[in-house]
Design a protein that fits this description.
Distance between the termini: 42 Å
Largest sheet: 6 strands, mixed
CATH class: Alpha Beta
Strand order of the largest sheet: 7-6-5-8-9-10
Radius of gyration: 18 Å
Shape: globular
CATH topology: Rossmann fold
Number of helices: 8
Amino acid sequence: MNHKEDTALTLAALLLQIKAIKLNTTNPFTWASGMRSPIYCDNRITLSYHKIRTFIRQQFVDAILDHYEKPDLIAGVATGGIAPGVLVAQELGLPFAYIRPDKKAHGLNNQIEGVVEAGQSVVVVEDLVSTGGSSLRAVEALRERDANVKGMLAIFSYGLAVAEENFRAAQCELITLTDYDTLLNKAIEENYITDSDIRSLIRWRMDPDVWSDAFQNQ
């Protein structure tokens, strides 16, 4: 097992342990979009655990230095990417900015909070990637400032095909510390889920919309 795989499994176990990720195939969660899902992820819970947030920070730092060397700026996607982004920027001794989903409707109408200068190399930090839509709007906002976005790092990704397509179309590299497949492997190993759960979770990942519609029609 290489370091990346070991990190992914370790983090998946930690997220399950502190219930930052919850799995329930019989009483699924409702996402903001209205979709029903057997998985819910709230990585903000990691901030309450010093050792876990430090582990995440250090894995982000190592990944940035391994893949991009030291950028000029770390940018966090609001709101989940702000805290881990600040921790990474502090560790690397770099400036930090964050990006809102949309421009404010008042004041200076900012979408980006902080100083971003043309030509700066930027690594974006996110907590969670589902379809990639909101994450890539942050990348677009930075590019509109003529920043050089080197890539994005996230704590967790659902690994949905639509996200892969969206990041590929945006020509933005995505690196995640752990992902859905790793989570399922760890959940099976730790007896968090049954064989029936596994089949349902795999079906959901293959087509979340069909899974959601089928559940609502039961």
